[in-house]
Amino acid sequence: MTAQELRSYELLEQLSTVTNEDEWWFWKRIGGKDVLDSLGMKLERQRMDLYLNSFEGVFDNRWWSAYCEKQHKRIAPDPLGAFGGQFPIKRILRLGECIHTLKGKGKLPDNLVERLRNRKSFWAASTEIEIATCFIHAGFGLDIYPAISTGSTPEGKVIIEGMDIYYEVTEQHWSNYELEVIRQESRVIDWLSKKCGPVDGSILFKSGRDSSARKVGELLALFGTHYKRGSLDPLPFQFENEDFKVYIRRSESSGGWIEISGLEPTPEEIVRRWVAQLFRKARQLPPKESGVIIGSPLFLWGPDQVEAALNEVQAELGGGAHRRVSGIILCAKHVENSGFIKHLPQVVINSNASVDNAEKIGKMAEALFRFPDWF
User: Fold this and answer.
1) 202 in a structural domain
2) What's the confidence (pLDDT) of residue 93?
3) Alpha-carbon separation of residue 100 from 78, 90, 112, 117 (angstroms)
4) Which of 34, 121, 233, 284 shows the smallest number of beta carbons within 10 Å?
5) Average pLDDT over every residue of 111-125
């Protein structure tokens, strides 16, 4: 272990035992308040302190202690990693600005704060407050979680030139797909461990179209057939077809090691599934008023993915089944926090909607495309 690695290990070990009375975990992690002056940010120190105070009001030492407990690890993970891989301090400052803005307008309900503090709902909630902050900065009237006659509570309502426009936000983060892959890899490893004992080898899933659960189910069915035939005893076992390439041998160690690849969905498959999730939000919108779905994709879309998403959206709207959706805005809000944005926002207007207000939906998209003055 190098000297730098040792210092990082010792720091994370200290962060594992932070109490409510200790210095805030953020200051401990970055090395003190003076570090902010060396970051080269375009944000003056007074505003930094203001935004970090608001951020600490949600993500205090109690939050960090609870986060560590749920990780079930002796050493804490890096807390900055919870807020994004690139430029996490910039992400934290922007999140603090959003919290400060909404709280100052009385638009930060307790249940939204709890969703921010919950690591499972954090990404969706943080995207919601990012979007709401953009609307406030654009001068729109705003309500968070407005009640409507159907009993649903859309994520927000903006008021533009006297018109109420209800909106829903769909956000999907990579972690959801990573967890799905990890669960399916564990199914394969558990099956092999129970039937064959410790094994080494590799498994390649060739098709990216089907879900990882379906692909693993097909592989385990294949394994089951070969197991009944005795093909897995004795090992090694080697097999290849259009869907799988498998090589397994008995491990010389007590644990074994299997390299599994190809379970991750392709970008095209992610787009297809994401658009389907997008339209599930439609039922939350009021049936006879203007409704907008704002979709925040989970990765930097290239032109092929943008075209595929727009085609999927247009095809879905063309059937006339989503009359409560006046339009859809594709806007990668969490991506721009890393300083990147491509091809977005894109606006799709539904010609079959109950209410047509394309001009105002365009203004919503313009508000979402604006960057903070210190970016």
Assistant:
1) yes
2) 94
3) 25, 15, 14, 16
4) 34
5) 92
Q: Render pLDDT for 51-67 as a digit per residue (tens, 0 to 9).
A: 999 999 999 999 999 88
Tell me the pLDDT of the chain averaged across its residues: 86
More confident residue, 106 or 83: 106
Residue 341, pLDDT score? 44
Length of the chain: 375
For 162-197, give the DSSP string.
Answer: TEEEEEEEEE--HHHHHHHHHHHHHHHHHHHHHHH-
Where does a domain end: 104, 123, 154? 104
13 within a domain of the structure (yes/no): yes
Instruction: Please give the Cα distance from 55 to 310 (Å, whole number).
Output: 36
Q: Is residue 20 part of a domain?
A: yes
| Nearest of 296, 289, 295, 367 to residue 326 by alpha carbon | 289
Q: Which two tokens stand for residue 301?
A: 């879309």
Give CA 222 to chain center in angstroms.
Answer: 33
* Contact status, residue 348 vs residue 314, Cβ threshold 8 Å: yes
How far, in Å, CA of 225 to CA of 365, rounded? 54
Asked if residue 327 belongs to a domain, the reply is no
Domain count, the chain: 2
Specify whether 97 is located in the same domain as 181: no
Q: In angstroms, rounded to a whole number, what is the distance separating the alpha carbons of residues 351 and 361?
A: 13
Residue 360 CB contacts under 8 Å (≥ 6 apart), including other chains: 160, 161, 163, 165, 290
Among candidate residues 71, 104, 137, the one where a domain is terminated = 104
Range(s) of the domain holding residue 49:
1-104
List all residues 6 or more positions away from 186 whose beta carbon is below 8 Å from its beta carbon: none
Instruction: Give CA–CA dist 276/84, Å, rounded.
Output: 25
**Structure confidence by residue, pLDDT tens digits, 294-346:** 988 765 566 777 778 888 888 888 888 899 999 999 887 654 444 444 445 78
Round to whole Å and give the CA distance between 236 and 171: 44
Residue 158 DSSP SS3: strand
Shared-domain flag, residues 98 and 9: yes
Helix axes 303-318, 267-280, angle to 10 degrees: 40
Q: How far apart are CA 352 and CA 318, in angstroms?
A: 8
